[in-house]
Amino acid sequence: MTFSPAGGQAREISLMFKEKILVVDDEEDILELVKYNLEKEGFRVHCVDSGEAALTHVREDSPDVIVLDLMLPGVGGLDVCRELKTRPETALIPIIMLSARSEDADIVAGLELGADDYVTKPFSPRVLLARIRSVLRRRLPPEPDRPDILKIHGITIDPSRHEVLVDEEVKSLSASEFRILHLLARRPGRVYSRGQIISAIRGDDYPVTDRSVDVAIAGLRKKLGEAGQVIETVRGVGYRFRD
Fold it and tell me: Which of residues 11 and 79 earns the better pLDDT score?
């Protein structure tokens, strides 16, 4: 027999299965704004106003996504991000940074520590919601029948054959270009700094400059043709593959 709860009871049961979002910010109006808009979309939301409280809450009740302000009293947002990303039990929790700072260095620092995305203040709640949904989609497991081959935006990437096709046409890429494309395409929407790209494809000690990454990206876009537009530049930060 099927049981169909009505009214508020149905909503309460549906919320039991929604993702948990932890919002960390020391501004009460920001917490209220984010909490209202996320709960309206059915998410379960917990708000804290300090880095210490955030770390305690994550230990007690691991969230699905953390929305983290960088400028917090006491333990700052970057310190919270660093600690969570270095713990095996919390390293995979997506973190979206909120930053009122204009310096690109702060955003880059957060991304280098492992943050998944960022939103600058003042921000649109709709934009934040889209970013949260984006990082949640990235957590989905790959299709079991195609664990290695990526197909996205008309581009097919086959790591086992070191082959890239655009609309079934084979594209000749250098080893570095292939690694960069594969890195970005594996996590669409995630922003990678130039330093992260260098570390991922060559290792932390590879003696190249940020300019070398820019040149490789330019060459990659040219070889991909119109499909190369899916590789987006994030000014002052790095690159991402369109979500």
Answer: 79
